[in-house]
What we know:
The structure holds two protein chains of two kinds.
Chain A: E1 4-7, E2 10-13, E3 19-25, E4 33-38, E5 45-48, E6 62-67, E7 70-75, E8 85-90, E9 97-98, E10 102-106
Parallel strand pairs in A: 2-10
Antiparallel strand pairs in A: 1-3, 3-7, 4-5, 4-8, 6-7, 8-9, 8-10
Chain B: E1 3-6, E2 10-12, E3 18-25, E4 34-39, E5 46-51, E6 58-60, E7 68-73, E8 78-83, E9 92-101, E10 106-111, E11 115-119
Amino acid sequence: DIQMTQSPSSLSASVGDRVTITCRASQTISTSLNWYQQKPGKAPKLLIYAASSLPSGVPSRFSGSGSGTDFSLTISSLQPEDFATYYCQQTYSSPLTFGGGTKVEIK
Amino acid sequence: QVQLLQSGAEVKKPGASVKVSCRASGYTFIGYYIHWVRQAPGQGLEWMGWINPNSGATNSAQKFQGRVTMTKDTSVNSVYMELNSLRSDDTAVYYCARIVVDVDSGWFDPWGQGTLVTVSS
Lengths: 107, 121
């Protein structure tokens, strides 16, 4: 199974801060890496797909990069509605696996 | 719009079974696989398996093999996930999600709203 390791597991930041979350795969996954945002009591929502593609309707302050084993999600200017938990996911091979999550909290 | 609507919360006793439904709307039902993911309280996301709503073929994570059954009913654009021999550590929110596939990648969009399954004596 491919293990996905996210870091940090949590962070505190202020509105307007630039925030970067990383995700490392235990073996190469090309660009088969997605990011999801989850708010308390809600289902995850697609944020970035195929490592760097932005779905329609997702604000441009979100961006993704990476390929192979190392990936990152960046929020260029943190907004109040961005405080949530973020998960990476690999869909390169079965079983599909998720990172452990990164909780972004208000400083 | 594309939507997945799941059945309501369930409370079950240990050893019982639970069946969660997921009804699709806004797209061609048989055109996309549906995956199931669960999330224990305060924990991360755990992939369970998928079903092909066209053929009915399924695949599940090794952890759930022999205990999970995924089925479909194309007449009502719905898929179902049944989990047997429930234990307390099966208490979780269960999500269905449509997978969109491109040349060499796939992603979950959208997700159902989730179904809380509580296993308690």
